[in-house]
User: Which sequence fits this backbone?
């Protein structure tokens, strides 16, 4: 199998030498990281994850994410977003929006989002979600920062709302933690969106979803990103759905970080080397190519320092 050809020559001591892996989405303001965040960040660095984009999804953790950028300059960057599930809070407390705008304009904040629509769970009324999504798109257009889009069972409405803004004014759009179908992915890609993948790849049971995208090489490398979504989306490399050939492409080094420090209860950014290897195995490419392409995309999109 072609995947084997890309794995058999892996030199464990050299695989990640001089590689830059960038985590485009970690929730390090989550309470699960309160006690040992410094160790988590150092582990990420040791594993090969050079930079981490910490998501803010409500006013409180937008502030905390921004604070982390100042504690770990050049390593931690932040985004500022109002997640669909928090949309109602902004409607109920209008003063929150002004505070959110001020946070968004800080130089350490490199993206707006996660923002978007979530119809999969009953998180907020659809009309409220749409209003807050539109406000965040307008803000991203005004300050020209990329949009991190959270979308669940709502692609048509997301696309319709975005199409109401002039294309020339829209900043780059990234669908974070993509979990949709092949058809949905192709629609996003055709419109110029970037797709960010997570450990969901390991539990994807659909015949027409993320794995299919990778196996058929439908995602151009120049529109691909990776994220840990820590503490969520643990990449379960022991999953029965993963073939023996794919599992054989995982190195001892990446598995050491994954199995020693990451669990279903608390995933960490240091899982990313294993995720990169999985993506490479499905695409029948070298892990170095996936790591370098996704890192370059992140540096370019978010204007990160090298």
Assistant:
């Amino acid at each position: 199998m072609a995947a084997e050809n890309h794995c058999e020559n892996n030199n464990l001591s050299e695989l990640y030498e001089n590689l830059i892996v960038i985590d485009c989405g970690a929730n390090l303001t989550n309470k699960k990281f309160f006690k040992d965040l410094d160790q988590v960040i150092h582990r990420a660095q040791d594993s090969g994850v050079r930079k981490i984009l910490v998501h803010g999804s409500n006013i409180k953790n937008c502030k905390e994410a921004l604070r982390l950028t100042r504690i770990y300059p050049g390593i931690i960057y932040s985004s500022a977003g109002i997640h669909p599930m928090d949309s109602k809070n902004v409607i109920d407390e209008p003063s929150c929006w002004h505070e959110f705008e001020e946070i968004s304009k800080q130089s350490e904040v490199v993206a707006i989002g996660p923002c978007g629509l979530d119809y999969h769970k009953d998180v907020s009324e659809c009309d409220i979600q749409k209003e807050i999504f539109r406000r965040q798109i307008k803000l991203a257009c005004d300050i020209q920062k990329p949009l991190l889009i959270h979308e669940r069972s709502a692609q048509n409405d997301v696309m319709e709302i975005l199409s109401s803004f002039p294309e020339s004014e829209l900043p780059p759009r990234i669908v974070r933690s993509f979990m949709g179908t092949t058809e949905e992915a192709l629609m996003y890609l055709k419109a110029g969106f970037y797709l960010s993948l997570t450990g969901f790849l390991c539990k994807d049971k659909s015949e027409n979803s993320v794995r299919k995208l990778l196996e058929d090489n439908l995602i151009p490398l120049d529109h691909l990103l990776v994220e840990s979504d820590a503490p969520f989306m643990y990449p379960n490399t022991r999953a029965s759905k993963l073939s023996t050939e794919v599992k054989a492409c995982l190195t001892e080094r990446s598995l050491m970080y994954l199995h020693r420090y990451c669990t279903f209860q608390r995933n960490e950014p240091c899982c990313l080397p294993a995720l990169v290897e999985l993506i490479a195995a499905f695409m029948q490419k070298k892990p170095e190519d996936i790591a370098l392409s996704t890192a370059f995309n992140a540096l370019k999109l978010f204007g990160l320092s090298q």
Remarks:
- Confidence is low (pLDDT under 50) at residues 9-16.
- The first helix runs from residue 2 to 7.
- The CA atoms of residues 214 and 283 lie 5 Å apart.
- The first strand starts at residue 21 and ends at 26.
